[in-house]
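Ticket 4471: requesting a sanity check on a complex prediction with NGF. Repro inputs:
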Amino acid sequence: SHYKAGFLTALTTPFTASGKIDGKAVSALVQNAKNLGLDGLYVGGSTGEGFLLSPEIRAELFESVAEAADGSLKLIAQVGAIEVAHAERNAVSAAKAGFHEVSSTPPIYFKHTLAEMKDYYRDLQSACDLPMVLYNIPALTGVSLPNQFFFDLSEDMNISGIKYTSTDIIQLVGLLDGLKDVPVYYGVDEMLVAGLSVGSHGGIGSTYNILGREYRELAEYLASGNLSAADELQARANRFIDVLVSVGMPTALKACLEIRGLCSARPMRPFHAVSKDDMKRLEVALEKLDQK
Ligand code: NGF
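Returned structure tokens:
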């Protein structure tokens, strides 16, 4: 396929009323990803509320996901945390649970030098000995990694991918041009057509939990040169995503998954669960999707 990296859903983290990992809901969400024909799961990222999860709860999450996936999906764990030692513990937990790759945002809050961020990734890889997916998501981290950073690290580390979640397509073109053999996952669901058109090798996103089949179809249309069919699917997806973004991510997605019967909408503090009014808006948006 044109898209050697594949299409992965960013997984929601489902909680029980007492704030534990809801194992039954994990199974349902993983099964849902399989049913949508997706290639794998990106666990503990923004969609998974990763930065709000302690190392203990992340370890539980990774175990639960790996068990439910049962060897049939590519598993990538986002392990970034405010405390570096926690990120490293998370990476070890992912490896123990049987994840195939780890991923991390760069260290956040302080403005670190590129040299510090390189050491961060090198130490993280040494801790777990798994291939690393670098993660550029400037809208949430406030850190925009330059292309030279990706090129340098892929020379001296085992980099298995880059998750590129930015609307800067000019930078993406340069990234794809300069990389040797490292696949790029495009991460802005609203711009998947753009990301794939310039040569990204796959995609990872939150709304794949709902629209995974449509995104795969969109990619196939692009690969076969049917641009207008791809554009139509993108527009349909974006009418839905607009509602989710206006309600607020990632809780709006979690609420949609509750409506679909897959997990509880209950988020981790300090997120609030979506209001009843917003729940109704999401129900309508989901119904419209089903009408085609
Ligand atoms: O949530 C964000 C914030 N981006 C996600 C995704 O790239 C990151 C994207 O799917 C992610 O899911 C993760 O780390 O777990 C958006 O939710 C989507 O495009 C709707 O705006 O940028």
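Notes from triage: The first strand starts at residue 6 and ends at 11. Leaving this open until the requester confirms.
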